[in-house]
Structure of Penicillin amidase:
Amino acid sequence: MASIGQANGDDSIGKAVSLGDTTIELLKTIRRIFKVLLALLLLLVLAGYFFVQHLKPEYDGELEMQGLAASVTVSYDTYGIPHITADSEPDAYRALGYVHAQDRLWQMELLRRIAPGRLSEVFGSQTLDADRLFLTLGIDEASRRHLAKADTLSREYQLSTAYLEGVNTFIAEGPTPLEYYLTGLDKEPFELVDIYNSLGYMAFSFAMAHKTDPLLEDIKNRLGPDYVYSLLEDCSNCTETIPITNPGDSAAATDLQAKLVLPQPRDEVASLTGVSRKIDQIIGGLPLPALEGSNSWVLSPAKTSTGAVLFANDPHIGFAQPSVWFEAHVKSPQYERYGYHLAGIPFPILAHNRQNAYGMTMFENDDIDFFYETVNPEDPSQYSRNGQWESFKEEKRMIEVKGEDAVAFSFRTSDLGPVVNDLFPDLKEETPVVMSWVFTSGKNEVLQALYGISHAGDFQAFEQAVSKIHAPGLNMMYGDAEGNVAWWAAAKLYRFPDSISTKLVMEASLDSLRSDVPFSENPRAINPEAGYVYSANNQPESTSAGYIPGYYLPENRARRITDLLECRDDWDREGVAEMIVDVTSSVDPEIISDLARAVPVDALNETELEFLDMLNSWDGSHALKSPEPVLYHRWVYELSRAVFQDELGEEGFKALLSTHIYKRVLARLVKEREWPWWDNVQTESVETAEAIIEQSFKDALEQVIDQSGEDPDKWEWKNFHTIEFEHPLGAVAALRPIFNIGPYPIHGSREVVNNLAFPYDSTGYFKVNAGPSTRRVIDFSDIENSQSILPTGQSGNPFSPHYDDQSELYIRGEFRKMLMNPAEIQEKEINRLVLTPVRTSE
């Protein structure tokens, strides 16, 4: 037995030794694998590091560029803003094109793809509806028609070509932005047609008719004229109007409602509300924001403490990342402007130098009309025109779709414009409705206009350039070192007889009643006695051409601006900078007062009374710690839903909320207790305005308390009113931290001067979707200390230090200097890029 035990013991020891050797070998193998993996990881990290470094914009060094006649210096300041110095203007624009593309190529790429219907090449079938819409609008065809007639020897053509040479040099020789890798898109050179197409998209994003007219027509057909009249009221004695210095018979426009004759409802047409809702969804879902509104005021020497002009402007645009504007200071012996550029557009839309400054707000005039075509009952391919039958033109297009087969698309056009039914399968067989738009049907001199205003050396040259703008309608704001202040409503205006509402779908035969308005009769104010000019997208006074129909915004911001400007004549730069971030509404407390008077005290419990008293004491401020705005805006939403949704349905109600008409009707709604809207048509009883107001207050308060409790200290505005700057690729959860900026709590609100707007919905939160795309204050007493801010940063490259370096300043309502002094630029230069002509071998 002993020998067996000994044998077993030896065997166990042998096995242990063998197992130990195996374990050691396994550990060695694991160690070797770990080293390999560590080396691979290190290589990946290094590769990633060098890849990221390669993707960063090149702000330093020397680069050769084809086409340059001499070297160009680009000095980048603390915030990455290029100060371009060149010996000639064409070279300056070549450099501008290069540095613009370096920081914003992906933004340029998306913008140029909208009008020709090429988004689906990037985003797949999810953008097919957008491509169909813009192909139907015909922007690309109109752009090519205008280019075919362009004067290739004109200065604007040559400078635009130089700018594109710079853009294309970066495309050919610069690093490829990350977005191209993530989407698998190949870079393509830019052409002049891309400039026109980008301007065309921006023009359409200004318009409101496509959101409004089909909805109003549907209301007329389904509910009757009384409902429409309540929404259509437009008059110069019921709102804050912009004073003009070329007045006509203003009295003729004050009672426009009395002249209006609405056509009879049409029973045979399908609902058009879906048209408004669908187009609104398409525009809202685009990877680039739409323009919403704006503020501007220009103070003459009589209104300032220094005796020099003060200029303020903050265009309101949908928020996105990167921000809309690219800042650049461009200087040559013949030219100098510190300007704000749209993606792919060579000439600045907003700018100043030492002689003058200009900016813009949206005019909001009506430049889109919808018409019913009368179809030949024996041949539906024909429509009636002047007693004759004309044939619809059939347009066929192919849309390339990423990862899928190309999609065929066709639509019809008449001589007035495209048939919008073809965009909506449910309306395909209905009475054709065509859309007539000034931008695509009129003479297009927008590029010439932008060149002219950016090169105007005096007041007269600026006005001449402004007269070339046909669409979109803009309020062009102006101030100069000579003490002049002015604004012009820049648009190709036309009129119909006052009995016709252009906000409804008209019979095509009525187009013959349209008459053009000469530019000399456009609203304007030049050096008015008041000592200032302003615009907050509100209605101008009537001119000799009469009342100009439009989709003007309510008087809220206009009243606050004029109230503040009228109260003092010693404005300085600091005062204007404080005013431009003002967050108090002059109108909201009045709405509360009107609503509160309708609520019987004995119908409220103690808690409800306490909160109603809190609202009644509110001054309209939307500061971060204010609790009142939370309850006020919830009440407004619940009231609006109770008033409108029973007649319009959920989709119709959402469509109404997206219009300027809703914003404008709100203050009148709470005063007009006899409107048919008040009754809930889904009940047998007839509800009064007072009953609806009372119940909506209780519903709003209950929901806020359920959401945040009864302590109003927990209702601080900052917890509900937030902003996030969203990149198109930030919709992918994994990419959101890389591309998106925020969210941040932020002060302000819709239709206050600091117009940080949000859509009304049922969530109880007020997520900002639009607001000041820049804030500028230009002081002609000290031009080199003028100031500005962008919402996020100068660069659209997420690896640039200037991707978000202005965001916290913006959120706090602060500014930074716009440098123009050469010595200060050199002092604050943090990077220098020198572009040189290509060296040729001897």
